[in-house]
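Quick log. Single chain, no ligands specified.
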Amino acid sequence: MVRTVRPSFNAPPARPAQGAIHPVDQAQGLRQMFAARVLRFIPVVANTRSAAGGLVLERLCAAYAAFSLNTLVVDASELARPPSELAEFDPSEGVERLSDQVSYMAARGLPLKFADARGSCSTLLDALADASPRSDVILVHASASELVRIFSDRGRTHNLRPLVFTNDMAEGLTDAYAAVKVLSQRGGWMAYDLLMCAPRRSEQAEEVIARLSQCADQFLGVAQRSALRLDPFEPASLDPEPRFMEMAAGLLHCALPHTLGDTAFDHLLSPGAALPARVSAALN
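-> predicted structure:
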């Protein structure tokens, strides 16, 4: 379960110079990317041996809150709660508001409810977009096989890069490698980012990072694009580190864009909604 996240800083938009058309800073560039009300889906690969899923999701939510973005966490991992009965028919019934910028949906087993005759669960993305139209980012936390069912139809034509995490133990490394194998062979995703969730004093953390990168490259031809460490003993109130913010921003740029449907626009344009009446074209 993801705890309530209260971002400790906000990056205000810098005032551009007269005639400037490029973003002045990273946060402004991300706000421009989301100005068209296009959701961004980010696949986060669950690792049941690591037990750090809550930490990873929490820190991502804090990073996106710092960019003034609203995040929905869809937890479809094996350790998550199953969705309520109503959520199976209307996913919006399963959305829990944790803070002004973070929402959560328990969704264990929910993707398979959307499976079609080919085994694809891609229609879940449409349902989630309609269920949380005010979200800017939707983190889908699930096993590698379920992420392939959800994203592969649409992700093959997009530069989608999943986030993998592990701990510094052998079983965590084994699960992470197995996930990378499924993502590459079934989903066609040949690059990923890695979060190593281990205490800063861990002596084997760097060795595990190097071993996973080496095995993924030599045996699967998959690139480990970047790898960062997260200390599970650090308080959640700490601001995300600059390198973590860079990784979070990179995941957004490689995330799967999804333009809101008519139902979602009707909701957003209703009285009291946060979206202005004028909507610009989608930026992909």
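The beta strands are 38-45, 71-75, 95-97, 102-106, 137-142, 163-166, 191-197, 223-230, 256-259.
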